[in-house]
Every structure is written in structure tokens, then in C-alpha cells.
Design goal:
The structure is a homodimer.
Chain A lengths: L10 H14 L4 H7 L5 E2 H7 L5 H13 L3 E6 L5 E6 L1 H9 L1 H24 L2
Chain B binds a DNA duplex (20 and 20 nucleotides) through helix 4.
Chain lengths: ~120, ~120
Amino acid sequence: MERTSTPCGDERTQRHTRQLLRRVGDTWSLVLVSQLVGGPMRFTELLRAVDGISHRMLTQTLRSLERDGLVSRTAYPETPPRVEYALTPLGQTFLGSLTGLVVWGEDTQAEVEEHRSRFDADRH
Amino acid sequence: MERTSTPCGDERTQRHTRQLLRRVGDTWSLVLVSQLVGGPMRFTELLRAVDGISHRMLTQTLRSLERDGLVSRTAYPETPPRVEYALTPLGQTFLGSLTGLVVWGEDTQAEVEEHRSRFDADRH
DNA sequence: CAGCATCCAGTACGATACTG
DNA sequence: CAGTATCGTACTGGATGCTG
């Protein structure tokens, strides 16, 4: 029973959370996971659906998500080859856990923007 | 009323959330904010308290948090100069919004680790 | 003490070309 | 179609030294 009402937790938890944020705070992980909510998608589908992503980053990010068990990869032995990516249950719970942050971002976005403008203005 | 039960939201929300994650997913922001939960701290106090942070990154990260309005900076016109950093109300609500993610990280950490090992092992 | 400027290594990312 | 390899660039973060 600690006095902490905020999720700072012990040092170990902090380290984990920081690593998690770094891991997931890259350019494309979140977009891809969000994109896959609608159901499985193929490589090229994703490439077209996600605006601005490069071939290379799509491969890399999918690999990384697959490695962590958030996304599953299914290859069908056909010609031409077909590979489908889908959200795993783990990936779905992950998206759910973001709710708090997403809501906070929506709620405070204007306020943060305001702070930034003011700060930048004051600095000459 | 959309079919989305997960916080993927519209494209605008997605972009905001991604930017938020990037902004906050750097090496030190989260550690600093967590550290300040206990109350205001001085520059050198933070430098000592946060293990591994460099002088430069402390300045930079504090600036950036101040800019976003998550942290307040109070300079006392004394000699030697004294500056105290504290969490703003906005900063506190931010920490609160992380609860879901922190819990998810704790709950699934072992599972994710397991996935990684297995993945790395399979890749010969 | 608090903060800034400079320099440097590591990495993230994009463009492109090539393989099964 | 899906994936790998190579290259160039831009940014991030650490070490260090200077200023008020």
C-alpha cells in the first residue's frame, strides 16, 4: 500500500514502461496495429492503406510486431505467394490498453498546443 | 456509431496518438515525469536521482516537457541560482492516463518476452 | 548551480535494386 | 507478390567545455 495514486510504480515498472513506450513509440507500429483492427491484410494491401510508409519500414515494423506477438503472419504456399497479417489477441488487448492515453491526447491536445505556442512566443 | 471497439479512432485521432507516443516515447520524458510525482525538485537533484541521465538530456527533456505544459519551471533569483521543476496538473493527469498501458505492460511482459525468445530461436 | 554550444557515434528511416 | 540487401541522410543522445 503505497502513497502513489499515479502509475509511476517501482523502478522496475518504470523501466518496463519506458521500454514499452520506446518500442511502440516508433513511426509505424501504432498505425499498423490500428490498421489491422479491421481484420487480416496482405502485405501490399497494407502498403497501399498506410499512407507514406515505405516498403522497407513495412517489412521491418511487421517483423518487430510479429516478434513481440502482437501480430501474426500467415503465408499461403501459392503462386504468386500470399501472406496475411493479423492482430493477435495480445495485439488487441494492447490496443485496448491505449484507451487512457488516446483519450488524454484528445482531451488535452488544444491545451498542449496552446502551451507550445505561448512557450515559443515567449522565447523571443 | 462506428464498429470500432478499440481506440483506433479516425485518422486524425490516430495521427495525434502516434505523435503523442513519439513525443513521450523518448528516453527520459517518462522517467522525469514519474520522478516529479513526489514533489518539486531542483536541477541537480534530478541529475542525481535519475540514474544514467546526462546533463544535456536533462536540460533538453525538461525544456520539452515545460514547453508542452507538463512540467513547470520556477527560478529563484538568488546566488547561487536555484531552479525548481514541478509537475503541473496537466502533467499529473497525463501520468494517470498511462495506467492502462502500464498495467498491460506488467501483465504481458512475460508473454512478450516468451514470444521474442521463441521468434529469435526459430530464426536459427 | 543552471544552462548552452560544439563535436561525435549510433541509429532510424527512405530510396533503390535485387531474389524466390 | 513478398522479402532482403545496400546505400545515403537526418536525427538522437552522450561527452565535454564555456558562460552568467
